[in-house]
Amino acid sequence: MANESRPCPCDIGDRLDYEGCGQEVQVEHIKAYICKPPASTDKAVIVIHDIFGWQLPNTRYMADMLAANGYIAICPDFFAGREAWKPSDDWSKFDDWLKTRDARKINKEADAVLKYLKEQCGAKKLGVVGFCWGGVAVCHLMMTYPELKAGVSLYGLIKDSDDISNLLNPTFFIFAEKDEVIPLHQVTLLEQKLKKNCKVDYEVKIYPGQTHGFVHRRREDINPQDKPYIEEGRKDMLNWLNKYV
């Protein structure tokens, strides 16, 4: 990785002092944060958290933004009760921590959430977005669940060996030009694999001058130079969902 001492700099950013507009619910064996739009809808988006977990205010802010744009938004605890990472934790232990939280081993949680959305919320059209750790999870889910009609993976870690070409439905990849964790050559390699093998719509976009976590971990009010890119990233995410969900 580009930076072994801090393998995931999601905490290099701004923690919102944000309460959230939704509520917490129990979904089978996991808890979830859910926010619904003012008008009834059959469209829903699963929001997958980063390493800081489902209670991070920034991620709930994203869920609320999706709800304000007409989607039922649910942010489940994909760590299933295991502790989220904290910025004060010892980064030398990060790899061991991550081994017990594999973003590709979340089918049990995904099944529960999909069932809840369909049976309890009347959702018929489904999408998924995810940040960092959640971006990896989006790639896995978009290769596994055909009912997810659109995916947006935001700065999900990719390895040279990863092949995510067999996506089942349209997927949008957001990357930051100056991401310490995801070198641009890996993004280029991803694009080459998708171009060669992917059978569905996809887009890979790199946002100039931005760092890891910029869409949900930067505050436009205190990062004015980043504001256009933060807003563009959020708008692009919404446009992709609006187009395909």
Structural summary, described in words:
With 245 residues, the chain is α/β, with parallel strands linked by helices. Helices cover 32% and strands 20% of the residues. It has helices at 57-68, 94-99, 107-120, 133-142, 184-197, 214-217, 227-244, and strands at residues 23-27, 30-35, 43-48, 72-76, 125-131, 148-154, 171-176, 202-207. An eight-stranded mixed beta sheet has the order 1-2-4-3-5-6-7-8, with helices on both faces. α4 links the parallel β5 and β6.
* Major sheet strand order: 1-2-4-3-5-6-7-8
Structural class determined from secondary elements: alpha/beta
Q: Looking at the structure, what is the overall shape? A: globular
Query: What summary fits the major beta sheet?
Result: 8 strands, mixed
Rg: 17 Å
Mean pLDDT equals: 92
End-to-end separation in angstroms reads 34 Å
β-strand number: 8
Count of DSSP helices? 7
- In terms of DSSP E residues, the strand content is 15-25%
Order of helices and strands: EEEHEHHEHEEHEHH
Measured as a percent range, the helix fraction is 25-40%
Poorly predicted regions are 1-6
Give a topology summary.
Blueprint: E1 23-27, E2 30-35, E3 43-48, H1 57-68, E4 72-76, H2 94-99, H3 107-120, E5 125-131, H4 133-142, E6 148-154, E7 171-176, H5 184-197, E8 202-207, H6 214-217, H7 227-244
Parallel strand pairs: 3-4, 3-5, 5-6, 6-7, 7-8
Antiparallel strand pairs: 1-2, 2-4
